[in-house]
Design goal:
By secondary structure, the chain is of the alpha/beta class. It is built from twelve helices and eleven strands.
Amino acid sequence: MLINLLKSNKLKQMKNHCSLFLLLLALMPFTGNAADKKKQNITLQTSILKENLEKVAQRGYMFGHQDDTNYGLNWSYINGRSDIKDVCGDYPAVIGFDLGHLELNASKNLDGVPFDKIRTEAVRQYLRGGAVTLSWHLNNPLTGKGAWDVTDSMVVKSILPGGNKYHLFQGWLRKVAAFINSIKTSDGVKVPIIFRPWHENTGSWFWWGEKLCTVSEYKALWAMTVKTLRIYGVDNVLYAFSPGGGINEAQYMERYPGDDLIDIMGVDIYQYSTNDVYIKDVKNAFDFISMQAQKHHKIVAFTETGYQGIPYSEWWTKVLMPAIDKYPISYVLVWRNAWDKKDHYFAPFAGEKSASDFIKFYQSPKSFFVRDLKLYEKNNK
């Protein structure tokens, strides 16, 4: 019995040491020379995607749409269907999906999309030659409510090392790592992913927002997230930093996680007012983002945008294009077309009032869709 007890204690000590090692490794600052930092130990296909995103930005921008092949206005889960394809005959070059509720062991995400479906559609998008981006509207680990629960300003602190929800959150990160690692083709190739956690941090509508945590806590959250995912074998991800709009350069860079963690510098800006105000907001943001991205050798992206209900029928060519045309933006992603909400759409569908203008946008030599690109070929031009 004593031997068993000693073995048990030794096993506990070994587990504790292992946990401590993983924790220290996750928090350890990145070391190495500049060449090492650029490599980041990512898969070949992910590295090629990164190179081609940079090339795309020199010629124009890829169009993206959230949940494009999962559902659209008044339809859901029809294999091969897409509101964008219905309008222009082609799929978006980028499709976004969300991981919210994956942390809860749920079979469906917060929008009711089965995670198996997300995995399938991500693989299909890769096989088409398009890019995949994942966001994560995760629940509040301290209160158990949704991502928009901002009733407690101690949430981020609670999941950092030493916090009372640290171990819970480590389990959540393991689930994310397992899911991303599982997005593979039938012959075992891991699909490259653009992962965009902790977005719109400069606002305070999410529990990781500016007023809900300190600068050091937010940066520590990013460091812990990326380094923990790397520990669990995630090597097929490019990480995107995407604060909300309406901020200046100092506000944007104040919580920038660091060059060793970030691959893409983006921003989320929606239109809520006049066309002129939106265009001005977008240009103000990308004036400094494009400059900072060049300085830090990062890719530029318009990670979320749109005009709900698209009230202006020429929005694509008279508003969006003038706002972004002069910037080296690799992709612009508009939000989803909800199947169950009449006016909750951000992209055209067959018969929608801006559809004809979107075709003009599609025909522009600067806008890229799936057929225009070969994102996973080394010498894509």
